[in-house]
Amino acid sequence: MKQYTRGSYNNYKIFKHTFLHSLSEKQLFAEYPHEYGDSNHYGPVFALIIAPFALLPDALGTSFWNIANALVLCMGFYSLPLPLRTRSIIALLCAHEALVAMLSFQFNVGLTGLIMFSFSYLHSGKEVKSAFAIALGTLIKLYGIVGLAFFFFSRNKLKLIVSSLIALAVLVILPAIISSPEFIVRSYTDWFISLKEKNMQNVSLTSMQDISLMGMVRRLMQDASIPNLPFLIGGLFLFFLPYARINQYQYTAYRLMLLASVLIFTVIFSSGSESPTYIIAFAGVSIWFMVQASPKSKGILFLFVFAFVLTSMSPSDLFPKIIRDTYIKPYSLKALPCVLVWFVIIYQMLTIDFKKINTHA
Asked: Which residues contact 152 (CB under 8 A, 6 or more apart)?
């Protein structure tokens, strides 16, 4: 309500007009400066997701939108195969990062929940539900495609593949119920072009985005020409290395570590990452921390506290403003703890016998 009364809800205006522009079949990814700043970068199906909120007055729509996202996030946390107390602690550890995202009315809160759903449904053998969670996340914001990383945990891979294809087909076509098939086809083409242009804009030393491993290096080196590709190749190589440990797939702790890796990887290797995106990464950090064997080592405790302070708390008024404005923002240092945690996760996934880690309620 504070953000609404101050008029600080530009993202919600963009989301709302995605629905309104779909109804009138106006270009979804153009700029409309008389309606909002910036432009839309979410897929056509998002118009249906935002519709119930867009039909309400903004004073109600903004609040209910954040409540809905928070509920999806909490349900995602509580779907994880962990004891109730552990799930509750993870949710509490992420509360501040979720607040940062919700102050900007970001969908990243709900998307984090969808990624966890895609994992939890596969873990419990519900391939159809997992497929729809993956497809929905992907068609709204491409980050959702990382749910496919859990493919090898499926007990019925053919069912997952078929369900995914059906889910994609249904969700691609579904927005046509408020517009037309021709408009939807054109919108997906426009979406691809807008994402390509947005990625080029993100790679800037002064952008509020690119809070990633690459962005951190670019800003520390003061060289915007440093390309993403070498980082992505190296990152993907390390990401896939733990898949070689097939004998560990059966253990819940290993699976949860992969979930943590996926959530962090999605953010630290994306030039589109901004501060509110870090609810995704910090959920991964929190899951990683709580899955550690007890008692937790001093090194693990230090790294988590470092992440909580620098990643989660740095955007807040509790953090010294001079440090935030002089060092954290200019050098994308919010990404640093998450990068370090991710490297530790990869090392642990390659070396730990997860049979010895108890994750049962």
From this structure: 243, 249
List the one residue out of 142, 361, 356, 128 whose CA is nearest residue 254: 356
d(CA 291, CA 360): 11
The string of pLDDT tens digits covering residues 194-226 is 988 877 776 667 677 889 999 999 999 998 889
Helices in the chain by DSSP H: which ranges? 2-6, 10-24, 46-54, 58-78, 84-93, 95-102, 108-123, 127-140, 157-173, 181-202, 213-221, 229-240, 252-268, 278-291, 298-307, 321-323, 336-351
315 closest CA partner among 306, 305, 324: 324
Residues in Cβ contact with 360 at an 8 Å cutoff, skipping those fewer than 6 apart: 83, 252
Q: What is the pTM of this model?
A: 0.95
| Cis preceding-peptide flag for 295 (omega within 30 of 0) | yes
Residues paired with residue 31 on neighbouring β-strands, in sequence order: 39
302 SS3 class:
helix
Check: CB of residue 133 under 8 Å from CB of residue 164.
Answer: no
Helix (H, G, I), strand (E, B) or coil at 121: helix
* Residues contacting residue 231 through CB under 8 Å, at least 6 positions apart: 213, 214, 217, 269
Decide if 60 contacts 98 (C-beta within 8 A). Answer: no
CA distance 31 to 20: 14
Give SS3 for 292: coil
pLDDT tens for residues 46-102? Answer: 999 999 999 999 999 999 999 999 999 999 999 999 999 999 999 999 999 999 999
> 């994402």: which residue's tokens?
195
How far apart, in whole angstroms, are the C-alpha atoms of residue 158 and residue 162? 6
Q: How far is CA 358 from CA 55, 86, 87, 122, 250, in A?
A: 47, 12, 14, 20, 13
The partner residues of 39 in beta bridges, in order of sequence, read: 31
DSSP symbols for 185-237: HHHHHHHHHHHHHHHHHH--TT-S---SHHHHHHHHHT-TT--SHHHHHHHHH
The owner of tokens 């962005």 is 215
CA distances from 272 to 43, 97, 338 (A): 16, 17, 16
